[in-house]
Amino acid sequence: MKLAIVGTGAMGKVLKNYAEEEGTFETIFFIEPTDESTWPLEKPDLLIDFSHPGAINSIYEFCRKQGGGFGVVLATTGYGPQEWEIIKLIQKICPLVQKSNFSRGVEAMNRLAEQGARLLGDAADIRVMESHHTRKKDAPSGTAKTLCSCIGIPESEYPEKTAVLRMGTVPGEHTVYFAMEDEVLEITHRAYSKRIFAIGALEAGKELLGI
Fold first, then answer.
1. Residue 49 to residues 18, 53, 97, 165: CA-CA distances in angstroms?
2. For residue 79, which of 89, 71, 87, 68 has the smallest C-alpha distance?
3. Which of 98, 148, 180, 199 has the fewest CB atoms within 10 Å distance of its CB?
4. What pLDDT digit, counting tens, does each position of 49-103 carry?
């Protein structure tokens, strides 16, 4: 089976290393989205994107030229309205999954935060804080935005109810606070390596393929 990885940065390299170790895919293509010469001529079984929002147009063109029919995993955040329209076009020709975070722990955190908002929403001030490495451009992070959605914080209230830190090489840390009178409940997820995102993205892709 063939795997195409869009993005040759740190996450793309981590994914490539894990995919080679995991062994499902015999052939792995490394694609730099801005370099046309790196896009393969042959159709992959699965494409995973760990690049940047601007690559979505090239991904769509590749899917269209190949006739679709292969799995697409989008693990990039920071999409705007135009990018989401392109994603809808890709969904018409390829099975696709997109998440702001493919960590199993974050998936559980989303559900726990949702439950916390149901139980404590009327009695608590709910806030979200996230930290990432200095090179991360979107703020708040896609994961933080998903958490906000789970607990009912609208985008218009992000400046008041979310705190953002960019420092060092932090892979990612997210906390939801439920602050009440004389007590505070915190739900925190810490990523200690980028490997967890690679594992989650590859597993999501295998589910798309039914393997």
1. 15, 10, 11, 25
2. 87
3. 180
4. 999 999 999 999 999 999 999 999 999 988 999 999 999 999 999 999 999 899 9
Distances (CA, A) of 28 to 11, 17, 45, 147: 15, 10, 10, 33
Model confidence pLDDT, tens digit, residues 146-187: 999 999 999 999 999 999 999 999 889 999 999 999 999 999
The structure tokens listed for 90 are: 């890709």
Please give the model's pTM, rounded to 2 decimal places.
0.86
Q: What angle (nearest 5°) sits at the alpha carbon of residue 162, between those of residues 136 and 84?
A: 60
Residues with a known catalytic role:
132, 136
The CATH code that applies to domain 2-98 is 3.40.50.720
